[in-house]
TrEMBL record:
<dbReference type="Pfam" id="PF08263">
    <property type="entry name" value="LRRNT_2"/>
</dbReference>
<keyword id="KW-1003">Cell membrane</keyword>
<dbReference type="InterPro" id="IPR001611">
    <property type="entry name" value="Leu-rich_rpt"/>
</dbReference>
<keyword id="KW-1133">Transmembrane helix</keyword>
<feature type="domain" description="Leucine-rich repeat-containing N-terminal plant-type">
    <location>
        <begin position="34"/>
        <end position="80"/>
    </location>
</feature>
<keyword id="KW-0677">Repeat</keyword>
<dbReference type="InterPro" id="IPR055414">
    <property type="entry name" value="LRR_R13L4/SHOC2-like"/>
</dbReference>
<keyword id="KW-0472">Membrane</keyword>
<feature type="transmembrane region" description="Helical">
    <location>
        <begin position="904"/>
        <end position="929"/>
    </location>
</feature>
<comment type="similarity">
    <text>Belongs to the RLP family.</text>
</comment>
<keyword id="KW-0812">Transmembrane</keyword>
<feature type="domain" description="Disease resistance R13L4/SHOC-2-like LRR">
    <location>
        <begin position="292"/>
        <end position="523"/>
    </location>
</feature>
<keyword id="KW-0325">Glycoprotein</keyword>
<protein>
    <recommendedName>
        <fullName>Leucine-rich repeat-containing N-terminal plant-type domain-containing protein</fullName>
    </recommendedName>
</protein>
<keyword id="KW-0675">Receptor</keyword>
<dbReference type="Pfam" id="PF23598">
    <property type="entry name" value="LRR_14"/>
</dbReference>
<dbReference type="InterPro" id="IPR003591">
    <property type="entry name" value="Leu-rich_rpt_typical-subtyp"/>
</dbReference>
Amino acid sequence: MGLLSSLVFPTLFLFLSSLPFSPILINGHQCHGTESNALLHFKDSFVISKFASYDLYSYPKTVSWVPSIDCCSWDGIECDELTGHVIGIDLSSSQLYGSIEANSSLFSLVHLQSLDLSDNDFNHSQIPSMIGNFSQLRYLNLSQASETTFSGEIPPDISRLSNLLSLDLSSYTLSYPPDDAIINQLQLSIPTLRSLAQNTIRLEKLHLSCVNISASVPDVLTKLTYLQSLNLFNCELYGEFPVGIFHLPNLITLSLARNPNLNGFIPDFQSRALISKLVISQTNFRGRIPTSIGNLTSLNWLSIAYCNFQGSIPSSFGKLNQLVHLNLRSSGFTIGTFPLFFVNLTKLSYLDLERCNLTGEIPSWITNLTSLDYWSFYNNTLHGEIPHSLVRMDNLANLYLGFNRLQGKLELGLFLKMRRLSVLDLSYNKLSLLNEEASFNASLPPLKVLYLEQCNLTGAIPTWIMNLTGLQRLGLQENHLQGEIPHSLFTLENLETLSISGNSLEGTFDCDMFLKLKMLNYLSLSNNKLSLLPGKGSSNGTLPPLEVAGGISPLICNLKSLVLLDLAYNNLSGTIPSCLGSSSQSLQIMMLQGNKLVGHLPQTYVMGSALKMIDVTDNNLQGELPRELVNCRGLEFLDVSYNKINDSFPYWLGSLPELKVIALRFNEFHGAIHCPSTCTFPKLHILDLSHNLFSGNLTPETIKNWKSMTTSNISQLLYKDWTIYFGGKNWFTHIFYSFTMSNKGVVTDYEQIQQTFYLMVAIDISGNRISGEIPSVLGDLKSLVLLNLSNNLFIGDIPSSFRKLSNLQALDLSLNSLSGKIPQELAELTFLEFFNVSFNNLSGPIPENNQFSTFEGNCFAGNQGLCGTPLKKKCGDSSGSSPTGVDSDHDSESFIEFDWKIILIGYGGGVVAGLALGYAFGSDVLLWLKRIFK
Ligand SMILES: *[C@@H]1O[C@H](CO)[C@@H](O)[C@H](O)[C@H]1NC(C)=O
Ligand SMILES: *[C@@H]1O[C@H](CO)[C@@H](O)[C@H](O)[C@H]1NC(C)=O
Ligand SMILES: *[C@@H]1O[C@H](CO)[C@@H](O)[C@H](O)[C@H]1NC(C)=O
Ligand SMILES: *[C@@H]1O[C@H](CO)[C@@H](O)[C@H](O)[C@H]1NC(C)=O
Ligand SMILES: *[C@@H]1O[C@H](CO)[C@@H](O)[C@H](O)[C@H]1NC(C)=O
Ligand SMILES: *[C@@H]1O[C@H](CO)[C@@H](O)[C@H](O)[C@H]1NC(C)=O
């Protein structure tokens, strides 16, 4: 790094005062032997690895460090011209790998004024406290391109560097997805930060991004009057940000982004303010933006995305005519109709107004902002037509208009005239895009991303798409596209994500064509009419079905980069190739539900499989669950519901450390639900065993293994690692998992209860043959939101321990043989929305409280001895009306005497019982049952 010119004077002074003994007279410009040796030692403490630096232009500077050459001419070394001492070391991006030892020879170079070791890999070593010995140091850069470099506490000694002008200890993580929690490896204590600010009063630049400070910002920073650039990105700051920092007279750049717990507000500004870059995104800054922001006439970069501001944008923004970058995404503002002042911001190249409550139409004058390169109005309520003058915006490369209410018929060819267009997102409006193939001319824009979801596209997939050779992401889902997938699509060899789900595509799903798309990681073709070629010999009828069925070609396993495969809801028949679990190390999500697949689930799953989610519901799969599934150590979601899988309770899945959802609904699972103490299901959220043939008792020992459900704070179980991003979407937020509860005469999708899938904790073992008493330890599963034990053979009391299930929203115990009273303690369950104990042998009064008064009579029907509201039978009134709570008629009463449960279960437990549950509680229930069973 260059020696700052301000250093010349003191150095000269030193020279004059020590003239007779100065080494320059003896050695000329030669470096001192001790310093040369120290540097060589330092060099030898590292190996060169090109993976140690991220900069593409990195190279090993220390290769030029050889004893035969004067160290002052080594690459990265700077000596004082007069004294010959080494005063500058620049080893940035030098591919160094190794640790810096506490007693490293580096620290003997006490004349250092500038030290730059950025972008190397110091293998998690600590910053040695000897760094404080460099009393001359003005410039120190230990920033790192990943979190692997330095770690641990920044030594307090750093505050002894009282001559510092510039300090950079940032790390920049390259992790993806961007919202992943970054683990900050370097920690800075508040006492150290305080004394640093007190001692280094001439500091001009302080960059600490991704350093874990975990405190509020100390006021003493407002004393750094020379400060020009302060970067506290992602420092885990909280508390109130000292407003004085905005008023530092020399401040030019301020970044506080990604400190979600940092409170603050934007103060009034004087006209003298020099600030040119202000980045406050992802903080808890709030309040209004003062009109005086218009005084920041040098401002060219303003990012206040994801904050909690209020009110509208002051029109003084129109004075900020130097703005190049403006990001107001989800900042809390309500912008309303497009303010005219934007027309003044002629230098704008980046404008993000996503989720800004923009209303009205897109004004045609907006196209006067011809410098715009990035333009997002995503997710507002804009309506009206898209102005055709858009085509004039020559520099526009990224255009996001998705999720608005834009309407009208629009010729797609319009956009194809924009010569720089790289991203076009028109998804989810009310547009009708027309595709007049004739209007497409030979020179297409360099589109990389094309999202035309729900754009009322009809006919075949537009042919010009096949000429977009640079296309990486194509989203055409939920249109009315027909015909087959054209083979020319497979010439788009840069394609990474492809979604054409929700159309009416026909023809065969041709695996080997997809193999040409070597970069493909996301393939979603669900909800079409795709089929597979029938297997050989399907017509002769002599081979067993598994052999004739054909199925998904094993070639699919050659798509080595595939992460998500979604072929759900098509006409796919035949088998699932066994390689799907074993060959691909990248496949994380496999969605094959709603087809006609037969045979077994793939039997081979290798260790190291990346599978997180397997959904094969609603097929005709049979056989056992493959035990090899335990090799999928990352499996989080397994849903095999609605098949014919015949197996015992898969307790062995309990060793999977991430498994959260097991759904076996409507299969042929049988035997006891038991669990040896070794299977702990450490993260289980949802266990759906309903409508199988499970029998035996539910033992306390088994329930005690489900420890993950015993926490009362559900948010502790959040799916933090459930983040798979494609096209800016988190795939896992799209999961739809519904439970059905029998209540109020209809099957109720549990989805309607106010609980997101993320927070859902549920056990559903309804529709089996479980007998014995309900173990009272179930009451220890405090995070349960839903518990469905209905349609089994449970006897005995309802455990009063259920009062501890404080998160419970739905409890269904209907269609059992429970007796005794409904525990009064259940009235303590304030979140309970659904409650059903109908058709048991319960007696006594129904608990009285506000919650219970909302449950209708049907929920208590079919219990001879129950009394109290909402039943007609009053307590202590033995001559009351029908105990069933349904219309009293002779037929129904005589039916109740009949053992209806035996009928239901005797009928097979499976689908019929399910149907019975669905309708069993309508007022016409008894008539209906009679029709079926008599
Ligand atoms: C700053 O802006 C406010 C409001 O726009 C204005 O009244 C004030 O005069 C400006 N201050 C200076 C010092 O120019
Ligand atoms: C636009 O800029 C002009 C000249 O800088 C200024 O006079 C005018 O007030 C600005 N308009 C708005 C709406 O701020
Ligand atoms: C958007 O505007 C509507 C009505 O003006 C308001 O109810 C809503 O809270 C606003 N949303 C946001 C995010 O500001
Ligand atoms: C937009 O530009 C056109 C032509 O350059 C000009 O006539 C018009 O006044 C501008 N619109 C606004 C609102 O400034
Ligand atoms: C749109 O914004 C709303 C809040 O304003 C948010 O809830 C919703 O998820 C957003 N939708 C998309 C597709 O980003
Ligand atoms: C979709 O397109 C068809 C045919 O172009 C048209 O008849 C229909 O009105 C459009 N639907 C909407 C919602 O615009």
